[in-house]
Design a protein that fits this description.
Layout (H helix, E strand, L loop, with lengths): L2 H18 L1 H4 L25 E5 L9 E5 L2 E7 L6 E5 L13 E2 L5 E2 L6 E2 L5 E3 L7 H7 L9 E2 L1 E4 L2 E4 L5 H6 L15 E5 L3 H7 L6 H4 L19 E4 L5 E5 L10 E7 L3 E7 L5 E12 L2 E11 L4 H6 L12 E2 L2 E2 L2
Antiparallel strand pairs: 1-11, 2-3, 3-4, 4-9, 5-6, 6-7, 7-8, 10-11, 12-18, 13-14, 14-15, 15-16, 16-17, 17-18, 19-20
Bound molecules: FE2/S2 (inorganic) cluster (FES) and fe (ii) ion.
Length: about 325
């Protein structure tokens, strides 16, 4: 079983545990055994995937902006005012200085702060100042593999910068980063780093039974006294395309709600909570594995008001579950 296969297993066990924690609380709920095939996950390649690394709105100037992804030290930088975002190794091949302390020069090249070596967006070294005038030394260093930075494909989509942390641009081109279609072109993304590993943080997002307890005070109407036993989840294994999960409410205040969840490898959880009156509250999470024991969470949410006339009059006021910030298709609703 591959790493993702193992993760699926754990996710599913957790989901079943979350739903069936009810065994004690409400005896009589039947366990639904789900048959899952994992063989096809063995080929999962963690590097040949698109990962969102930062919302574009959070990138300063042309960079370089240091990031970690799959425990690689990388930098993001823009190769000119109207240029493209680049992602290269964050360590200078000369004497291993962190390139995040460098700058982008007027040619749109990344210059190392230590001795001024310059690099193009494709990672090739374009200048070694101390070798200038020495043809032999320049020939050994400029444009050579020994002085090249690893460079990775990037893509921007719906306000996020994505990185493909593998040297396989053609494969990257054939695959689109996953962003839920229902989001607007530039949603309000939040981004923060969490001191928890990818598996732990992903799992907790699939366990709604914690919400009435953990989110008391954080969200209106979330309180231990409202907690209700959940029905077992319906889980569909989509192989390398992830998981599709349906479940119902977990509090007296949302028992009529139907949740549609989608896990899209490597790190997306896209969930829509549909209420009987037509309201939809959506959450989109990415759990980006930055380094062991750490995850970057990138999130947005949206709200679709009820389409019934009576509820529309009250708009958000009738919600059992309101958010502190309500966004509609990724845009803030005042
Ligand atoms: S360490 Fe980067 S130029 Fe010397
Ligand atoms: Fe939660």
């Amino acid at each position: 079983m591959g790493a993702v296969g193992a993760a699926y297993c754990t996710v599913q066990k957790t989901m079943r545990r979350a739903a069936i924690s009810t065994e004690v609380v409400t005896p009589g709920i039947e366990k639904k055994e789900v048959e899952v095939k994992h063989e096809k996950h063995d080929s999962f390649n963690w590097e040949k995937q698109w990962y969102p690394v930062l919302p574009l709105s959070m990138l300063h100037g042309s960079g370089p902006e240091p990031i970690k992804l799959l425990n690689k030290d990388l930098v993001l930088w823009k190769d000119g005012p109207d240029g493209d975002w680049r992602c290269t190794s964050g360590i200078c091949p000369h004497r291993l200085a962190p390139l995040a302390h460098g700058r982008v020069n007027s040619n749109g090249e990344l210059m190392c702060r230590f001795h001024g070596w310059c690099f193009k967006g494709n990672g090739l070294c374009s200048k070694v100042p101390m070798a200038e005038g020495d043809e032999e030394a320049t020939a050994k260093l400029v444009g050579q593999d020994c002085s090249k930075l690893a460079s990775y494909p990037t893509k921007t989509k719906k306000g996020l910068l994505f990185v493909w942390p593998h040297d396989s641009a053609e494969e990257a081109d054939k695959k689109e980063p996953f962003v839920p279609e229902e989001l607007s072109e530039s949603p309000n993304w939040s981004c923060f780093d969490v001191p928890a590993g990818w598996r732990v943080w992903l799992e907790q997002s699939w366990d709604p039974s914690h919400a009435p307890f953990l989110h008391q005070y954080a969200l209106p109407n979330f309180a231990p006294e409202y907690a209700s036993a959940m029905e077992p989840f319906e889980i569909q294994d989509l192989g390398d395309e992830g998981l599709s999960v349906k479940h119902g409410g977990y509090m007296q205040t949302n028992m009529g709600m139907k949740a549609d969840r989608r896990f899209m490898p490597p790190c997306a959880n896209s969930t829509a909570y549909r209420y009987p009156d037509g309201r939809i509250i959506g959450f989109n999470f990415y759990f980006v594995p930055t380094e062991p024991g750490k995850v970057r969470q990138i999130t947005t949410s949206y709200f679709v008001p009820s389409n019934t006339e009576e509820k529309q009059k009250n708009q958000l006021s009738g919600n059992m579950m309101q958010m502190s910030k309500v966004v509609l298709q990724g845009g803030l609703v005042s």
